[in-house]
Design a protein that fits this description.
3 helices; about 30% helix; about 35% strand; alpha+beta; flat; six-stranded mixed sheet
């Protein structure tokens, strides 16, 4: 109200046909104008003063909300050898402090140069001289992990003698199927992805179909007759109906976290109902070929045996004839010898 009165007084203090605005140092800027213009300006000035007074006295602007601080966590590793790798799962933005402790090598030194690197590249202004304290060297640094680019491999180096790797990644999907799912044309199939119970639940799940070299996100609402996506915390299912040969290939499931997305894959193979019979038909063909080969071999062997039998009979007749001739000759010889013996005996009897 006081400011309103001051504004009215200032306007009323001007002479008729004049209007002025106060300036610094007590000076005034005077405008000479008709009465109608003067009243109009007075009204505008009065409204302005009322608005200023209302904002200043009646209300105070609320202060801006303080920027929320990220949660903090600490991961420590004590190294007794030359290298070690620690895997750290990160599902949301965090201020992560990494602590490295190295007990030193066999050759004890009083100090060593320690520094940090990310994905093989040195981090600026991270080098420092570490002194031996309680028979060990200590190196630590806090990192703000706020997005997917912040993930990766952070390494603390102790000179060129030892290092500790911290591999930061989103929780990985544990249920990875190595063998493909086989289904038939026209049928339906269910593909499943899930996280371990000990891991945090993702915010949501996504499904992709690999088309050539690109992954295309599956929109179940666009083709409700073909695709159906179900989500239940740490488990997701993709149902594909009316399968065709074009559905064969890789499907990717994605567990979406606040900082990044963990991916896994499922392979689908769609076949016709006759394809399972192909191995049986191949086996039958192989058996028939084997039987035919065996029969041909037996027939050939039989012919050889028959030919060998005929040749054996001819040789037997020849041997029989030869044996008969030999026996006749022997008999003749014996008879001759017997006759000669008889003649000799008769001769001797005559002489006597």
């Amino acid at each position: 109200m006081m400011m309103q009165q001051q504004c009215v007084k200032r306007v009323g203090a001007a002479q008729e046909g004049e209007s002025y605005f106060p300036l610094a140092g007590g000076h005034r800027l005077i405008f000479i104008m008709p009465d109608s213009w003067m009243h109009l300006c007075s009204l505008v000035l009065l409204l302005s003063c009322t608005h200023i007074n209302a904002k200043t006295v009646g209300q105070t602007s609320s202060p801006a909300e303080p920027v929320g601080q990220l949660p903090a966590d600490v991961r420590s590793v004590v190294l007794k050898g030359q290298s070690y790798t620690a895997h750290v799962e990160v599902s949301s933005p965090i201020n992560l402090t990494l602590q490295c402790t190295w007990t030193g090598s066999g050759n004890k030194v009083d100090n060593v140069t320690g520094y940090w690197s990310k994905d093989g590249e040195d981090i600026d202004n991270s080098r420092s001289t570490l002194r031996l304290e309680n028979q060990q060297f200590n190196l630590q640094r806090m990192f703000t992990i706020k997005d997917e680019e912040s993930l990766g491999k952070y390494t603390c180096m102790f000179g060129n003698e030892a290092k500790i790797d911290f591999v930061l990644a989103v929780p990985q999907i544990s249920d990875v199927r190595d063998k493909p799912i086989v289904s038939y044309v026209g049928d339906s199939v269910v593909m499943v992805c899930k996280m371990d119970d000990a891991k945090p639940s993702p915010k949501t799940w996504l499904w992709f179909k690999v088309n050539h070299t690109e992954k295309e996100e599956i929109d179940a609402t666009a083709e409700p007759q073909r695709y159906e996506i179900k989500m239940d915390g740490k488990v997701t299912k993709l149902l594909v109906h009316n399968l065709t040969h074009l559905d064969s290939g890789l499907f990717h499931c994605g567990a979406v976290y606040a900082i990044s997305t963990a991916m896994s894959h499922v392979e689908l193979k769609v076949i016709t109902i006759y394809e399972p019979l192909k191995p049986f038909v191949a086996i039958v063909v192989e058996v028939l070929v084997l039987v035919a080969v065996i029969l041909m071999f037996e027939r050939s062997l039989a012919k050889k045996r028959k030919a060998a039998g005929s040749s054996g009979n001819h040789v037997g007749d020849t041997e029989h004839a030869t044996n008969a001739a030999a026996a006749a000759t022997t008999t003749t010889t014996l008879q001759a010898e017997a006759n000669g013996l008889e003649e000799t005996t008769s001769t001797r009897q005559r002489k006597m």
